[in-house]
């Protein structure tokens, strides 16, 4: 049987940074942020060429080991076959190893680009299948759901398949991220989590997670209690003591702050009037970035402009 046909023109995919967990929503909640990686993919006559600018330019592989390439290959297999050659250009702005979803962004960029460059790809790999594939590659759905869908997402597994719903976060929210100089491996941070937790802590988190849905979408004045966590943040302290210290310092000032994903970045959720003041909490070794919320999620853009 003949393999798929590919478009001659290059495609450009833009993918947002994401923050997962958001305090009590461990492995379930995600928020898309206005910080983006761009990936341009073109089917070539032969070979593989990978070019990287920005984050990871000095350290990332430029061969089949690159996560965007691996994700492209996985998606092409599902779409019916591999192209003869590939040219991949990555403009990376999302920090790596900081809990802002850089790996999920790479995965989503790869599979979306494969779908876009394959004629008939959208019908062969619909949005539900796209989420399931991204989750299979990443291992959990929280970041990839927010990356693909944008906004505030709640992800879960049903019958072994990833599912997610998207909600609109309150337009008044202004995210401020505090990014440290040094990364922490997700595997290291996750490895510190206990196999069991006290029932009282699980019950408290269930209530806070439910409250967080209301706080993020309609009543941001409830964000401070809604972002309280007992399941994962404190357990990660040995791997990132400065992160938890900053979280506690911000919360002590009344600022809803959480560990972003597995850390070590700190996410503060504030408003227009307080964002600049909150940003000044960054001490030595931290870079504070005031971001927007992303509503669109991963998308295919024209090659020219939109930078």
Describe the structure.
- The protein has 10 helices and 11 strands.
- The chain is an alpha+beta fold and 307 residues long.
- The strands form 2 sheets. Strands 1, 2, 3, 4, 5, 6 and 11 form a 7-stranded mixed sheet that branches. A 4-stranded antiparallel sheet has the order 8-9-7-10.
- Helix 1 (67-79) packs parallel to helix 2 (102-117) and helix 2 packs across helix 4 (127-138).
- It is globular.
Write the topology of this structure.
Layout: E1 11-20, E2 29-44, E3 47-54, H1 67-79, E4 85-92, H2 102-117, H3 121-124, H4 127-138, H5 142-149, E5 152-158, E6 161-167, E7 173-180, H6 186-191, H7 199-217, H8 223-226, H9 241-252, E8 257-259, E9 266-271, H10 275-279, E10 286-290, E11 299-301
Parallel strand pairs: 3-4
Antiparallel strand pairs: 1-2, 1-11, 2-4, 2-5, 5-6, 7-9, 7-10, 8-9
Structural features:
307 residues; alpha+beta; seven-stranded mixed β-sheet; 11 strands
Count of strand segments: 11
- Classify the secondary structure makeup into a structural class: alpha+beta
Rounded mean pLDDT is 95
Helices and strands, in order, run as EEEHEHHHHEEEHHHHEEHEE
Oligomer category: single chain
Radius of gyration: 19 Å
Largest sheet: 7 strands, mixed
Low-confidence stretches: none
Put simply, the count of helices is 10
Indicate the percent of residues in helices: 25-40%
Percent strand equals 25-35%
Distance between the termini: 41 Å
Q: Give the CA-based shape.
A: globular
Summarize the structure.
It contains 10 helices and 11 strands.
